[in-house]
Design goal:
This protein has 2 domains: 94 residues, no CATH class; 61 residues, no CATH class. The protein is flat. It has 9 helices and no strands. It holds the Pfam family Helitron_like_N. It comes from Euphydryas editha.
């Protein structure tokens, strides 16, 4: 919640890539540490864990090898994928097999409205006209996008939500 609050403030310092990576690593460390403590609680009832055991690298490695539950919070780990797979199967049992599949990807450097917004945010409210934006080099457009990933993610999220709202609408006309 704190990271989300920092990212959405008008102060744009929290949106630079280095700070984003720092916050992501911090959140990952917090999730792993809380999951490790839960994993150690389930080592066994008769097991006596001492301070020397915790400080021993061999003991920690053996616990990790025997109980990998703490990996559930790390994206792209086997445990994380297994949990997502279970969620997917539960969704399919509840709603049935999907009848359509759609893959979306962002084209930030091609969206003029987004580029205008990024330019305005970077240059303290100074707006850019369509002609100047059209003449802007791709490198400068990519730099605008790379410097403010938060705004790009929020913009893409809003576009996807709008698309889903249209697709889920009962009033939509048939496109076929």
């Amino acid at each position: 919640m704190q990271a989300t609050s920092e990212l959405r403030r008008t102060d744009r310092r929290a949106t630079d890539p280095q700070h984003l990576l720092y916050v992501a690593a911090k959140i990952m460390r917090q999730r792993v540490s809380s999951s490790v403590s839960v994993a150690f609680k389930h080592v066994g009832h008769d097991t006596k864990i001492t301070k020397e055991n915790i400080q021993s690298e061999d003991y920690i490695n053996s616990c990790i090898e025997s109980n990998l539950a703490f990996l559930r919070c790390i994206p792209n780990s086997a445990w994380y994928s297994a949990d997502r797979k279970k969620d997917l199967f539960a969704t399919m049992r509840q709603f049935g097999a999907p009848t359509a599949f759609m893959t979306l990807s962002a084209n930030e450097t091609g969206w003029t409205d987004l580029l205008k917004l990024l330019y305005k945010l970077k240059n303290n409210g100074v707006e850019i006209n369509d002609e100047s934006l059209k003449d802007m080099l791709y490198v400068h457009k990519a730099q605008l996008v790379n410097e403010d990933g938060v705004t790009c993610a929020i913009y893409f999220n809003k576009l996807v939500n709008s698309l889903l709202r249209i697709l889920e609408s009962k009033k939509r006309t048939s496109i076929w």
